[in-house]
Each structure stands twice: as structure tokens, then as C-alpha cells.
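C-alpha cells
________________
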Amino acid sequence: MKKTMDQDVKNNVIKVGGKVASLPEFNHDVYGEKFYRFYLETDRLSGTKDELPVIVSERLANLQELKIGKTIYIEGEYRSYNQLAQNNKSRLVLFVFAKEIEQLEVDESVKNINELTAIGTICKQPIYRKTPMGREITDLFIAINRSYNKSDYVPCIVWGRNAKYCEKLEIGMTLKIEGRIQSRGYEKKYDDGQIENRVAYEVSVSKFEIL
């Protein structure tokens, strides 16, 4: 059955609030419609800050009003695409695709809103591991269907008792997940000795359901 737009949106819904951390820069255009990229700083309850890349159409928001420090609230989808990196290897790029933006004068309550609800299929074997501090984690990699026969590929992490359970999940199983997008810095080392500082994005899963 062909999916309607409403069905597709329910597969992938992100709600995030925070402060604009960088000015919008041109990213790409599609049939004359220009899309811009900027970073949004959102707070965790622990006080840690995540900077999330956002892509927005010029038709959706007044870009001149997206000033650094401005508090905004976004609803949209969490998307991905492959970008050619060094050594001709592809690199997964993840971003929030904005469908609605609300600019707020002052509203501290939205600064830690970071909620993703998605339905996806496991496309890599789950990997169970422990952190140096002994915390249990399972890495999941899911594919979320999008319209026009496209998919978005999203790395996820599951913690604690759920991590041990998810270790046994199989490729091809469909999950409904709820969680928040988190960022972390790391170093990428190349064969020639060069080191590149990068930022990885993953969904920290708080709830999941096998469909």
C-alpha cells in the first residue's frame, strides 16, 4: 500500500527547542528552493549541551531573524544522507529537517525539549558493550522509511537492562523508538597519521517497542 504523507510523518517526528548557535549558511537547493543549515544548542537535564545541525527551507523562516542566541522551537523529521569523505569513503550525515519553526522571545522551558519518535527497521546486527565505567550499552542502527522510496539511517544507543535485551534483536525487525538526539566529540585517525576532530550524533533511546 502506498504511504500517505500523514503515515510517513508518523514514522519520524522530532520536536526540539533551544538557542540558535550559528548563523544559517547555504546548504543546497532543490528545483530553485534554497535550503540553509545552522546549529541549534539544546540542553540535557544534566546540564550538558548538544549542538544539533538543522536544515531549513528559505520559504519556512525569515533567515535574518535566526540570530545567534535566539530561542526557537522546531518540529520536523530526523534525516540522513551519505557524503563523500576522505579516501573516497562515504560518511553518514545526520540532521534535523525543519518543517515548522516558532521563534520565541523568552521561553526557558523549551531549551531542553528534544524528543524523537520513529518507526524503523534494524539494518545492522546490534552490538552490546560496556563503557569504561561499567555501563551496559547496545548500539542499534535503524532505517526509517521516507517518501519517494528513500530511507534515513539513524544510529541509536540503548542503556542498562534494555541494552542486554536488545543485544538479541535481529536484522529486519521493526521497532518503534522514543528518545533524544545527542552529540559527542571524537577523533578520527587516518592511515597517514592525520587526526580529524569530529562530532557523532546518536539517538539515546528511552523507550522502544517491537512491532
